[in-house]
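sry for the spam today, last one i promise. struct tokens for design, 194 residues
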């Protein structure tokens, strides 16, 4: 079952490593002004993961330009956090996907597994069905996906396009890396929580 992998601290450790690689790349590039980047992480209290989430989940990796007069922020894409959302990205995808299809899970069962209440899960479904298809990112990438994904089947179809073995970290990595452009400022193109 998918939630077994998500309940495994080493899976989240693995995703932390992916985020660190993404952050290292951003740091090497430096600020657009030519300045060097200093560490300036955002504190986070994510929900929906396993009981023993690694300490690295207490912050979202971010940088600040060292030059006076610039001090611009650079926040690299993340496979762990969807923007400012408190729930972990993998959980937002998985729970919404599990609510769809022939063997849809009941809200109560999902709430017990992931600690998200009915209203939160309803917001995620609205996000995938109504907001996500409007994001510029999705409009660009959807043509690259084979087979074509029907908006009505989001996020389940997206999930199935990437996750072939439910305990495969690499499959999860590919899915979350695919979605990571929406985790940076302006990437989501919408405001508010879901
Ligand atoms: Zn700068």
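last one done:
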């Amino acid at each position: 079952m998918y939630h077994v992998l998500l309940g495994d601290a080493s899976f989240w450790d693995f995703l932390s490593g992916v985020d660190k690689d993404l952050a290292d790349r951003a740091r090497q590039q430096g600020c657009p002004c030519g300045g060097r980047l200093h560490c300036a992480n955002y504190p986070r209290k994510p929900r929906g993961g396993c009981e023993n989430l690694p300490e690295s989940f207490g912050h979202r990796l971010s940088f600040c330009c060292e030059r006076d007069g610039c001090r611009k922020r650079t926040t690299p894409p993340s496979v762990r956090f969807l923007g400012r959302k408190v729930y972990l990205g993998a959980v937002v995808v998985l729970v919404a996907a599990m609510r769809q299809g022939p063997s849809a899970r009941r809200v109560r069962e999902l709430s017990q597994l992931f600690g998200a209440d009915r209203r939160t899960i309803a917001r995620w479904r609205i996000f995938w069905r109504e907001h996500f298809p409007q994001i510029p990112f999705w409009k660009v990438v959807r043509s690259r996906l084979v087979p074509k994904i029907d908006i009505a089947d989001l996020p389940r179809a997206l999930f199935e396009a990437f996750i072939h073995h439910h305990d495969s970290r690499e499959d999860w990595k590919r899915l979350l890396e695919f979605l990571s452009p929406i985790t940076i400022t302006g990437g989501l193109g919408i405001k508010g929580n879901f």
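Strands lie at 37-39, 42-43, 59-60, 63-65, 73-74. ok im logging off now
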